């Protein structure tokens, strides 16, 4: 239960961090909040040869409102900072709703927004949320910069397109259109524990109560978070009636997910609760859309 | 050869200069290098909360931070609260309300709750339960702990 030894670098700027990562190549690993990585290192499941600790890089910690009404969040911003930030509360209450379910207060004070997304744990809330919100990820390398949409960022369990000599620097969230509502729901064995299944929906209504747009992510029920196509096929252009929502729940929970059985829940149970959670998430998201997002 | 990193850390108001391996956890640094045995080590993966300490005033897990990361920072452990003759009000309430049996989890609860009560001097039961949802106690069933927090909150706000 102690990590194997490793080399340690604590740069104080983004440039210095990128230089170090470029030098280390495949030997280097970025250390953000460490609330997943250090636990994995304690178990010796992760054995990086060198850590590049970003905790002294102050310029990576910020929440900036963007001119279009969205937000730009620096990768090292603590989850608890996001959870209590007034701009986040005003613009993206879904993030606040989700944050309450991320582990425990002590973990959220140290864990970082970008670190959780780059870790790409299929059972972690923030990778799924980054996908359903279609966050834009800024990936920096030495002398390079590129933008990747979150659904293209995460390519497998604990796998992203971020190269060893790169780091996730910032996440940008575009504002929701008017009459958009969102809702996150999950089932877990205890407060702060891993979810056996979770669903987040973001829906938009037009002035005639017709569903204009829907994004729904299914979490912890496949190797990676699943963005539901069925929800889009069934709901867009139609009234989000009880029957339509039930149809999405039926279709998505039978054809779009591939849950595993483990100590905490069987695959059948996960499928069954996913169906229920889809109904709850979509129903409340549409109610909130009618109320203008509240 | 082992690579060592020099660190300067303030723990409970006292400045320590030490050489540490990068892999040394802050929890082990406090216990083994500094001999501060009040911080308990339970699960070592962030679930149990026994190792909770204050890092620059914020309650965090000392098993999920490397000692080398504490360089230049201020740490507070349970040893900073009270003495057996003169307990911190929260420690006194834990004693009075029987909020501990074996006591293994208690330092983590106390270090979680001290900043919580400073921020929220009159918490509701729900707020208390949310604050301690990252601390596991296998003895008390939490009822007595919640009672103790209410008791301490009342006494501490009367004092002010």
What do you see in this structure?
The complex is a heterodimer of chains A (294) and B (160). Chain A has 294 residues and is α+β, with helices and mostly antiparallel strands. Chain A has 2 domains: 1-175, Uridine Diphospho-n-acetylenolpyruvylglucosamine Reductase, domain 3, CATH 3.30.465; 180-290, CO dehydrogenase flavoprotein, C-terminal domain (Enolase-like, domain 1, 2-Layer Sandwich). Chain A has 12 helices and 14 strands. In chain A, the strands form 4 sheets. A 5-stranded antiparallel beta sheet of chain A has the order 4-5-10-6-7. In chain A, strands 11-12-13-14 form a 4-stranded antiparallel beta sheet, with helices on both faces. A 3-stranded parallel beta sheet of chain A has the order 1-3-2, with helices on one face. In chain A, helix 7 (113-119) packs across helix 8, helix 10 runs antiparallel to helix 11 and helix 11 (242-255) runs antiparallel to helix 12. Chain A is globular, with a radius of gyration of 19 Å. By secondary structure, chain B is an alpha+beta fold. Chain B folds into 2 domains: 5-80, Roll (Ubiquitin-like (UB roll)), CATH 3.10.20.30; 89-159, Orthogonal Bundle (DNA polymerase, domain 1). Chain B is built from 5 helices and 5 strands. Chain B has a 5-stranded mixed beta sheet, with helices on both faces. In chain B, a hairpin with a 2-residue loop joins strand 3 and strand 4 (58-61). In chain B, helix 2 crosses helix 5. Chain B is elongated. The termini of chain B are far apart. Chains A and B meet through helix 2 and helix 6 of A and strand 4 of B.
């Amino acid at each position: 239960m102690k990590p194997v030894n490793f080399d340690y670098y604590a740069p104080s700027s983004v440039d210095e961090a990128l230089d170090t990562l470029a030098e280390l190549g495949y030997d280097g690993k970025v250390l953000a909040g460490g609330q997943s990585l250090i636990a994995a290192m304690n178990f010796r499941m992760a054995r990086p040869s060198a850590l590049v600790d970003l905790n002294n890089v102050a310029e990576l910690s910020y929440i900036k409102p963007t001119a279009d009404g969205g937000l730009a969040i620096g990768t090292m911003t603590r989850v608890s900072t996001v959870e209590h930030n007034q701009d986040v509360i005003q613009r993206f209450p879904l993030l606040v709703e989700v944050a309450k379910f991320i582990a425990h207060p002590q973990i959220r004070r140290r864990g970082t927004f970008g670190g959780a997304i780059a870790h790409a744990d299929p059972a972690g809330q923030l990778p799924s949320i980054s996908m359903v919100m279609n966050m834009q990820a800024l990936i920096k390398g030495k002398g390079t910069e590129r933008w990747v949409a979150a659904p293209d960022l995460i390519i497998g369990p604990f796998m992203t397109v971020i190269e060893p000599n790169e780091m996730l620097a910032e996440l940008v969230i575009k504002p929701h259109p008017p009459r958009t509502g969102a809702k996150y729901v999950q089932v877990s064995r205890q407060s702060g524990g891993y979810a056996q299944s979770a669903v987040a929906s973001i829906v938009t209504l037009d002035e005639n109560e017709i569903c204009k747009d829907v994004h729904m992510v299914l979490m912890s029920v496949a190797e990676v978070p699943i963005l539901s196509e069925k929800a889009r096929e069934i709901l867009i252009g139609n009234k989000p009636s009880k029957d339509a929502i039930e149809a999405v729940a039926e279709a998505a929970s039978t054809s779009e997910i591939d849950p595993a059985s483990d100590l905490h829940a069987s695959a059948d149970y996960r499928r069954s609760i996913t169906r229920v959670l889809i109904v709850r998430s979509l129903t409340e998201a549409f109610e909130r859309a009618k109320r203008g997002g509240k | 050869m082992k690579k060592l990193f020099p660190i300067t850390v303030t723990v409970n108001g006292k400045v320590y200069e030490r050489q540490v391996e990068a892999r040394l956890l802050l929890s082990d640094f406090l216990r083994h290098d500094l001999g501060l045995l009040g911080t308990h080590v339970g699960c070592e993966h962030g679930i149990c909360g026994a190792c909770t300490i204050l890092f620059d005033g914020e309650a965090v897990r000392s098993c999920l931070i490397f000692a080398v990361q504490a360089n230049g920072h201020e740490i507070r452990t349970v040893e900073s609260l009270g003495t057996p003759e003169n307990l911190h009000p929260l420690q006194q309430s834990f004693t009075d309300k029987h909020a501990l049996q074996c006591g293994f989890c208690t330092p983590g609860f106390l270090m979680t709750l001290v900043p919580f009560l400073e921020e929220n001097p009159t918490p509701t039961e729900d707020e208390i339960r949310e604050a301690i949802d990252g601390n596991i106690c296998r003895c008390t069933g939490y009822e007595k702990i919640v009672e103790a927090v209410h008791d301490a909150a009342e006494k501490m706000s009367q004092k002010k």
